[in-house]
From TrEMBL:
Gene3D superfamilies: Invertase/pectin methylesterase inhibitor family protein (1.20.140.40). Residues 1-22 form the signal peptide. This is Pectinesterase inhibitor domain containing protein. It comes from the Eukaryota. Belongs to the PMEI family. PANTHER family: OS02G0103300 PROTEIN, OS02G0537100 PROTEIN. GO terms for molecular function: enzyme inhibitor activity. It comes from Zea mays.
Amino acid sequence: MAMRSLALLVLLSLLVVGVAQAVELEMELVPADAIAMTMDREPPQECATPVSVEEACRSASETHAGVAYDHCMASLGADPRSKEAGNKNMHALAVLATRMAIDHAASTESKIDDLAELEAASSDPQARARFNHCLEQYGGAADLLRDALDNLKAKIYGKAMEQLTAAMGASESCEDAWKGEEDVPVAAHDREYGRMAHIAFGFTHHAAAAA
């Protein structure tokens, strides 16, 4: 019996040593930095806070004089991307509104360029100078809006709002170039762009507040 007990003890000891060596070998095979990364890694956080276009437009119109609720609803509601963005959060709506403002700036620049081409046939150098001024303003606004979009995506809201504010000045500066003229061929385009730029700013401001 004593011999059998001793044999069992030896066998158990060998099993324990084997398991310990196997665990040690497994730990050696896994890089230490990989283990640290696994321990430091936080579980993904769900940050989706759905907001309807109606809620977003109402909030923006109540806090920003340049945002008209009806126009905001008509502009965002007509874009099929707004529903998907609203299902995420205010940040996604701000990104969409900024993209729409970029599109408006580019299309306004294109329309003004077409008007300038027609005006080139005339002999009025002052009119051509006004069109050129507007083209410069909208070209610069489009660049500012693209930079704002990049900062907005990175959630650098303060810088994005600064750039959106600067981009808003394009329509006013273009209008000023036509002061004293009864017919302002770019008026409708200026107005539409200005409204969209204000919506983008209003949405971005609320996204920053919700962050």
